[in-house]
């Protein structure tokens, strides 16, 4: 047995490395929740999740007031059983984002423990499907940037070896978005992928209208065009366009992903470990996507998703958007436009505990 003896929860605020804007919001700060779990056999594992701007203290409260004590005495090796036990104890608030974020911080810590115990990196222990995957850049495509800035950023990203870039859309008119995308396409040519992201800002008819302007530009995917709870709207949109529809960062359970896939509403699955409740449900989603012959390109969390995307056959792209530089010693390895998952046992993240202590707010 590997009995859990201690659970420590922390909250740190991280400032974004650049100004980040989309059609719905400005990225204010990243509220990062860390959980460290210790066991009676001398091992420990650390996991994390995050919010953008608000809600970090609510997640911390869920952990401290309702979940941490339920872990004590449990066998850390039985990750599925622990996850199910915690979910059963939060039925009044599940499925919901605060509960999912709290579960994710615990579950990633348990997976860190599992990998360290086995002496294996996450990407191999969770499946070992790919030794590397292509990376695309998000930092150069924010909505507030001018056309000249978008073009310059895309040029730099391509020169740096990235295999594509994401451009935020949602300007007042379709013509403005199309002009920005066309300028980038003219700069990078046809051998570089362009993804677009509307951040749930459009109506169904408007999304269909704008998708038609993207088709001549050979867009890789149209991300979060509609509110995530508008399943029928995504179905209609997917049927109306040749551009793959990408969803997932705002979906909080494996069952909801299954509904999207069964309805043909998702051409790319962007499941996020933090928002779906951890690595345990993330893997279920990724394998369900594989069963529907749909690729997985996870949202955000590049330091963690690099290993997970490489673990599963459906993994296709990793999003480059730095998140943890201020509180880690490790760095993502990118070679020839591809991420190489860490080989160190565990999640592959080396935490800077001094920096965490300095930035800790709770």
Automatic annotation (TrEMBL):
User: Which co-factors does it depend on?
Assistant: Mg(2+)
PANTHER family (UniProt xref): ENOLASE SUPERFAMILY, MANDELATE RACEMASE, MITOCHONDRIAL ENOLASE SUPERFAMILY MEMBER 1
Q: Which UniProt keywords apply?
A: Magnesium, Metal-binding
Q: Name one Pfam family in it.
A: MR_MLE_C
Location of the Mandelate racemase/muconate lactonizing enzyme C-terminal domain: 147-244
InterPro entries annotated for this entry?
A: Enolase-like_C_sf, Enolase-like_N, Enolase_C-like, Mandelate_racemase_C, Mandelate_racemase_N_dom, RHMD-like
UniProt name for this protein = Mandelate racemase/muconate lactonizing enzyme family protein
**Which SUPFAM superfamilies does this one have?**
Enolase C-terminal domain-like (SSF51604), Enolase N-terminal domain-like (SSF54826)
